Amino acid sequence: MLKKSLETILSPKESDELISAFDQIGSIIIVRIPDSLLDKKKIIGETLLNEVKIVKSVFYQSSAVEGDFRTRNLEILAGEDNTETEYKEFGCRFIVDVENAFFSPRLSTERERIAKSTLDGEVLTNMFAGVGMFSIMAAKKKKCTVYSLDLNPIASKLCERNIGLNKLAGKVISINGDASKIIDEQLIDKSDRTLTLLPERSDEFLESAIKTTKNGGIIHYYSHIHADKKSEAGKLTEEHYLKITPVKSEILGSKIVRAVGPRYYQTVVDVKITK
Fold it and tell me: Do 164 and 255 have their domain in common?
């Protein structure tokens, strides 16, 4: 239906590119538009607004996610100029601000995997938690405690709202600030399971992840890796982790989380550490 609506303004190839480059998050669509189509962005926005009935706003993503707060610039194309919406996933409800706090709907499968991997009674440290998606899903599914850390004050405030929305007060603890400092001051040897959900800077924060993880605990180490063959990406991540880690580590498994560019992947390796 969407392709049919776009056929008067886009070629079939342009239409395919566009449809693969937008995310629907609650009542918001975010679309990444190639430079060659920027002169048609307003009509693209109006078409998306008209065709996807529950959508109230269509935004063009005019910058990459960047900076310490992991934010991006959005330009309103059609509908309401409001970047906050409610998003639902696997029985959880979240208030997200798609411009001012990190959030990706494309990590839903990984969020579910982590929630299923978590054991009752565990303590988790989520070092770069954003609005608390991984933290809340784990605590909703299992009887665990999660320390949900983020440097961005807007993300931490949204995490607090989402804790209340999902009735998880006391199970998820949102802490705003630098993950390394928080761990040094409050969370040494606290965690049975640690998430390093900042793949572009995981090497920088690996020492802190090890500090917060108990002897025998598990680190889910996320990173970005170039691989000529997709099948090699997980193994390359394992090799990289083993090269840089200062502690004895048992590899439990690795996988591609998602593609982030041509021959460029976000990966995760699960490791059990001995200190």
Answer: yes
223: left (phi over 0), alpha (psi -120 to 50) or beta: beta
Residue 27, burial from CB neighbour count under 10 angstroms (0-12, 13-18, 19+): middle
Q: Where are the alpha helices (DSSP H) in the chain?
A: 2-6, 12-19, 41-51, 108-117, 133-141, 153-165, 179-186, 202-212, 233-244
Domain harbouring 235, CATH code: 3.40.50.150
DSSP class of residue 139?
H
Per-residue pLDDT tens digits for 258-268: 999 899 999 99
d(CA 185, CA 30): 38
For residue 90, being part of any structural domain is answered with no
Q: Are residues 77 and 139 in the same domain?
A: no
In degrees, rounded to 5, the angle at the alpha carbon of residue 111 between the alpha carbons of residues 107 and 116 is: 150
CATH number assigned to the domain comprising residue 61 = 3.30.300.110
Whether 163 maps to a domain, the answer reads yes
Question: From the centroid of its chain, how far is CA 127?
Answer: 12
Cβ of 109: how many Cβ atoms within 10 Å? 10
In terms of Cα–Cα distance, which of 104, 218, 229, 96 is closest to 165?
Answer: 96
**Residue 209 burial by Cβ neighbours in a 10 Å radius (0-12, 13-18, 19+):** buried
Residue with tokens 């691989």: 227
The one-letter code for the residue type at 3 is: K
Read off the pLDDT of residues 161-183 as tens digits, 9 standing for 90 and up. 999 999 999 999 999 999 999 99
Instruction: For tokens 């601000």, name the residue.
Output: 97
